[in-house]
Amino acid sequence: MTVPFLPTLSTFFIVLSAVLVAVGWWLIRQRRIEAHKKTMLAAGVSALLFFIIYLSRTVFIGNTSFGGPDSLKIYYTVFLVFHIFLATVGAVFGLVSIWTGLKEVLPRHRKIGPVTSIIWFFTAITGVAVYLLLYVFYKGGETTSVFRAILGY
Ligand code: HEM
């Protein structure tokens, strides 16, 4: 079985980011503030790497359509939209969590931190599910890029 390199790499970074958030949460429960900060910033970098890879692939290579049976397409699409929704909300909450953490707005940080972490866990789990559905369980459909679509080459 062969899987495409860039989607595999970007999915790896989402999973790594979620694992780092889990470790960061565990660290703060041990009151290890500096280690918590470093681990959460590393989780942010990992999420950013995911986003950069995903975005460059979308622009330069394209998005791949679902290659499974037509009867499953609607469920896949709804699930994909749900995942994108979680990722977007998670990114906004992530930025607010990093901001409140660095600025030491701690009462708010303590409230939003666990919510961000849980949203991020679900983002990673649904992201892996999308990856499996798109490239592993079924063979990916057509890939079309914004550039190719516009320039027609
Ligand atoms: C990068 C900068 C960050 C700094 C400097 C920072 C700092 C802190 C500090 C000092 C606390 C302890 C608050 C207290 O109990 O007084 C804390 C708690 C916490 N932070 Fe962060 N944090 C950062 C990023 C994040 C991020 C990005 C997340 C989530 C993805 C997060 C999740 C949490 C959680 C879950 C708690 C424990 C809340 C509780 O149960 O009381 N932190 N953080």
UniProtKB/TrEMBL annotation:
InterPro entries: DUF420. Pfam families: DUF420. The keyword Zinc-finger does not apply. Keywords: Membrane, Transmembrane, Transmembrane helix. It comes from the Bacteria. The chain crosses the membrane at residues 6-28, 40-62, 74-98, 118-138. This is Putative membrane protein. It comes from Edaphobacillus lindanitolerans.
